[in-house]
């Protein structure tokens, strides 16, 4: 399958630069007053690995200068595991022998009440790809329900058109998270065997449609392990900078998910170990000091503890990757993937406080949810 990438996205000019980087270039990148794509490609390179402690120190300094000692907290709520997609790496793929479930309005209300009782004020609603069993018209009432309970309501669902995003913004949705999974078009086609998600260009354009539709924040990321991580991270950076330039009032966050065990036992072709994941996060903080960098409960307790406040400024907590699971009234056994950090909110917050970090459950009010356009 041949796809012509938009010129603003193609990272190929920087791939060879990264792979050929030398020690002197790494030092220059660390000392740069206004680092950008050149410096990112250098800091992602193998030559930068011996400098990871210096990168960590600069990332910590920039995080505290631009964001402070705060860690924003959120939790995901899976609404449905119905999915027509054939993603090889996903536990909800349509060829997995799972029982499929969608929360009823009553079950969702109990789930949201349980999450609110945990003091959470930001919820991320998740589904599979668009299907007649759970589509836009099913999603909207849950957003309206969540907006009455939480000040920040995000979605990580199927791509939509601008009019649909505009309607969801009016219903109280504040953000959309949409990972491209991999920016390598050939690999993307390989991993997405069938279903609506197979449309690479439709997915890559969705964050722009969401911001045009009035949503305030976009969460971005690539699933580390699917393709060459240097390629994916450089393309992710270009994508984020494009959106920042076009929608300059918008907020952007970047996540760094890695493949975790799931039904189907998919094994990644590209291993990203803890050291290189830390290097990636530090590199992004150095070149994007004002952006929220997110780390989920996919990662281990030890790794999350070490990264909190050192680049990472937002984290999920007490997460469930099953449909429901926060209350006694709903919670089905099939999960999208296994989480690694299962601490409750209180325990996790105590860890943050022990590191002189402040857990933040709420950083704005619903009065600001006006659906402003960009």
Total domain units: 1
**Averaged pLDDT, please?**
91
CATH fold assignment: TIM Barrel
CATH architecture: Alpha-Beta Barrel
**Quick one: biggest sheet?**
8 strands, parallel, barrel
Number of strand segments: 11
Uncertain segments: 365-374
Describe this structure in words.
With 374 residues, the protein is of the alpha/beta class. The protein has a single domain (12-19, 35-362), classed as Aldolase class I (TIM Barrel). The strands form two sheets. An eight-stranded parallel beta barrel has the order 1-2-3-4-5-6-7-8, surrounded by five helices. Strands 9-10 form a two-stranded antiparallel sheet. It starts with 11 loop residues before the first helix and ends in a 14-residue tail after the last strand. Strand 7 (292-295), helix 12 (301-307) and strand 8 form a beta-alpha-beta unit. The chain contains 13 helices and eleven strands.
């Amino acid at each position: 399958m041949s796809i012509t990438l938009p010129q603003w996205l193609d990272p190929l000019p920087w791939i060879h630069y990264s792979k050929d980087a030398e020690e002197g270039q790494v030092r220059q990148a660390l000392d740069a007053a206004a680092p950008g794509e050149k410096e990112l490609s250098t800091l992602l390179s193998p030559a930068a690995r011996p400098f990871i402690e210096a990168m960590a120190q600069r990332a910590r300094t920039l995080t505290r200068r631009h964001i402070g000692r705060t860690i924003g907290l959120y939790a995901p709520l899976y609404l449905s595991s119905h999915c027509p997609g054939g993603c090889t790496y996903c536990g909800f793929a349509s060829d997995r022998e799972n029982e499929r479930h969608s929360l009823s309005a009553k079950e969702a209300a109990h789930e949201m009440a349980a999450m609110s009782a945990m003091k959470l004020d930001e919820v991320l609603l998740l589904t599979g790809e668009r299907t007649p069993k759970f589509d836009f018209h099913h999603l909207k009432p849950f957003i309206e329900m969540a907006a009455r309970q939480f000040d920040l309501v995000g979605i990580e669902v199927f791509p939509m058109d601008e009019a649909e995003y505009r309607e969801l913004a009016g219903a109280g949705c504040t953000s959309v998270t949409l990972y491209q999974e991999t920016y390598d078009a050939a690999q993307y086609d390989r991993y997405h065997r069938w279903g609506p998600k197979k449309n690479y260009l439709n997915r890559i354009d969705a964050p722009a449609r969401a911001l045009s539709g009035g949503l305030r924040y976009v969460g971005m990321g690539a699933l580390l392990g699917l393709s060459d991580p240097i390629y994916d991270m450089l393309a992710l950076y270009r994508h984020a900078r494009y959106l920042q330039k076009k929608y300059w009032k918008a907020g952007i966050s970047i996540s760094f998910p890695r493949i975790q065990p799931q039904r189907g036992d998919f094994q990644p072709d590209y291993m990203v170990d803890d050291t290189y994941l830390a290097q990636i996060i530090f590199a992004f903080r150095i070149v994007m000091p004002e952006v929220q960098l997110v780390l989920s409960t996919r990662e281990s307790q030890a790794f999350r503890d070490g990264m909190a406040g050192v680049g990472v400024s937002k984290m999920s907590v007490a997460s469930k990757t099953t449909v429901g699971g926060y209350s006694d009234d709903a919670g089905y056994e099939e999960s999208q993937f296994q989480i690694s950090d299962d601490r409750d909110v209180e325990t996790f917050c105590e860890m943050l406080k022990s590191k002189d970090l402040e857990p933040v459950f709420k950083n704005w009010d619903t009065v600001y949810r006006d659906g402003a356009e960009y």
